[in-house]
Specification:
heterodimer; A: six-stranded antiparallel β-sheet; 54% helix; elongated; B: mainly alpha; 8 helices; 78% helix; globular
Chain lengths: 423, 165
């Protein structure tokens, strides 16, 4: 091997050589004194150049970036629906576009389910004692009496729940259960019928796997105290996730044996020539062989497929309803497309035209055609005497006192042919 | 796949401004150019964002530099505005040094200088190659030359100053 060029030495120190190249370079360095001393020199230039560039720091106060620009990229759903030409307006976005936030809220919701379940059990009269008894550490006698006094579902005294040495909280280890119990006590102490009802409702709903929009609505309307509890529950979950992540990271940092062997061989070869000086050099040169993998790994992580969405989410319906309810909401028979079976009927926000009755929601009949394309037939009652004159061929028209608007993912021609079948 | 621009912004804005500041020596200009770069990213979302953003930013600097030169402005690299901005005497030494570094950097050719600044932002050779339109194999040589020249220019300037005073 001829002498190493300076570019190769820089690449070596920058950790940019692959294993084979690095091995060749190292073995050459082990035998060639000239290249060895050039490597020393290159190292000095490299360090000095880095120091000089690093000295060009911006004046103080410039470090913080300004607030990021408004979110420009449309969430997946909107992007998907905006493409067809027939969308004359963007539907109101009703669902969360952030998958992470969605997951978090689901976790809260689950914690609430626990709270509600335990609330009901205790409310039934068996209560704290049985739970404590199961775990073998009985509370002091005084506590038992107070607990029994509160049966049937009575209101415990505030100072009782506020006491820090409350035995109940110490007994059960899983965080969700502990929190749920605290929550129950709190609910009993300060009479909050709303919270209890909500918690019960949550339990019933969770049994049915409710739509996300319902879950969101519930979480938003829940009293702050309930939210705190739920947040604590989700925190406990995230802690365990973190520790898993740390474990994974630790595994990732393991170096291939190959690399290790290269480093040892190089170090020995250099030590023979000039022990002290050479050993230093070997260490420096091999230290630069850190695989650049971690830096590169960050790039492809962003391309995760969006989570699949329910029909309600896709059609942006905030409440799914039956036909009878739809007739009630609309105040007249609901229009449908003849020969097609609706995927669902639901309610959505907004007004189809200026003359629409603001007190009535938009009833949205959702179809999915044989090719999986979504078609929406929106209908809303007009205020009396507000019937607008619809243009010929428009997909927005009125029948009697009801405004209709047909739109969807198929092209306008398909929609027009469907429009003729609306009854 | 279109990258999320907000994420890009959070991830790269700081780095981009720092690189532009080192390149131009003018904080306001660096921020303007970074904003302009992101505005272009909004218009045409890049596939490989980091090299793309930095390549666009460096192009903007070059265009801007040519315009400035035509208008008879002083070469931007020699400006030492931070001296005026920071004021206090205890920063004097530091400002002197950044001025000297900037002057040394100005002596490098465009490609060497840019490779050096990208490396300082943590770019690997592949990304530098993609940003500057080089082959990956040429990056080591480019950086070797750039580092050597920068250090030599800086040292020779220091010597010149010592002799003059």
């Amino acid at each position: 091997m001829s002498h190493l060029d300076e570019g190769t030495l820089h690449a070596l120190l920058d950790g940019e050589l692959d294993v084979t190249e690095a091995r060749e370079v190292q073995s050459h360095l082990g035998t060639c004194v000239a290249c060895g001393s050039r490597l020393q020199e290159v190292k000095q230039f490299l360090a000095e150049a880095d120091r000089l560039v690093g000295a060009l720091e911006m004046p103080a106060g410039a470090a913080a970036p300004p607030p990021p620009p408004p979110r420009e990229s449309a969430p997946p759903f909107r992007r998907q629906l905006r493409e067809p030409e027939t969308w004359e307006e963007t539907p109101v976005l009703l669902v969360l576009d952030n998958a992470e936030a969605l997951a978090r809220r689901r976790r809260w919701f689950r914690a609430l389910g626990w709270a509600a379940m335990i609330a009901v059990v205790i409310g039934g009269g068996r209560g704290l004692m049985s739970l404590v008894g199961q775990h073998g550490s009985l509370p002091p006698a005084r506590d038992i009496t107070t607990a029994t006094r509160s049966v049937p579902p009575a209101v415990a005294s505030p100072e009782e729940t506020a006491r820090p040495d409350q035995p109940v909280a110490q007994v059960v280890t899983p965080p969700a259960r502990t929190l749920a119990k605290n929550r129950t006590l709190a609910a009993k102490t300060t009479p909050q019928p709303k919270a209890v009802d909500a918690a019960k409702a949550a339990m019933v709903d969770s049994a049915r796997e409710p739509a996300d929009s319902v879950a969101d609505e519930f979480t938003d309307s829940a009293p702050p105290e309930t939210q705190t509890l739920a947040a604590a529950g989700s925190m406990a979950e995230s802690v365990s996730t973190d520790s898993v992540a740390r474990d994974t990271q630790a595994k990732d940092t393991a170096r291939p044996e190959d690399d290790l062997a290269t480093r040892r061989a190089a170090a020995q070869a250099l030590a023979e020539l000039d022990r002290q000086r050479r050993r230093e050099r070997a260490a420096a040169a091999t230290a630069a062989l850190q695989p650049p993998a971690p830096a590169r790994a960050e790039a492809p992580a962003a391309t995760e497929p969006p989570p699949s969405r329910t029909p309600e989410q896709r059609s942006q319906v905030y409440l799914r309803i039956g036909l009878d309810e739809a007739v009630k909401q609309l105040g007249s028979p609901v229009h449908v497309i003849e020969g097609m079976t609706p995927e669902l009927i639901g309610l959505t926000y907004g007004r189809l035209v200026a003359g629409a009755d603001p007190n009535r929601p938009v009833v949205r009949v959702v179809y999915v055609d044989s090719r999986g394309r979504m078609i929406l037939l929106d209908q809303q009652r007009l205020r009396t005497g507000q019937a607008p004159s619809a243009a010929e061929g428009s997909l927005r028209w009125s029948v009697g006192d009801v405004m209709l608007y047909l739109r969807g993912e198929p092209g306008p021609d398909v929609l027009r042919s469907l429009q003729r079948r609306v009854r | 796949m279109t990258a999320d621009l907000t994420e890009l912004f959070e991830q790269y804005y700081g780095s981009l401004v720092r690189m532009l500041y080192r390149r131009t020596g003018d904080r306001d200009r660096a921020e303007d150019l970074a904003q302009e770069t992101f505005a272009r990213a909004v218009a045409a979302p890049p596939n490989n964002p980091r090299p793309w953003l930095f390549a666009v930013a460096l192009n903007l600097v070059r265009e801007d530099g040519r315009r400035a030169l035509r208008q008879g402005r002083r070469l931007e690299l020699l400006r030492t505005e931070d001296r005026a901005e920071q004021g206090p005497e205890n920063d004097y030494e530091r400002n002197e040094r950044s001025a000297a570094v900037r002057a040394a950097l100005a002596l490098l050719n465009e490609r060497d200088r840019e490779a050096l600044l990208l490396k300082a932002e943590g770019f690997n050779y592949e990304e530098i190659a993609a940003t500057l339109g080089l082959s990956k194999g040429a990056v080591g040589t480019t950086l070797a030359r750039a580092r050597r020249r920068l250090v030599e220019a800086y040292q020779s300037e220091g010597r010149g100053k010592n002799v003059a005073s």
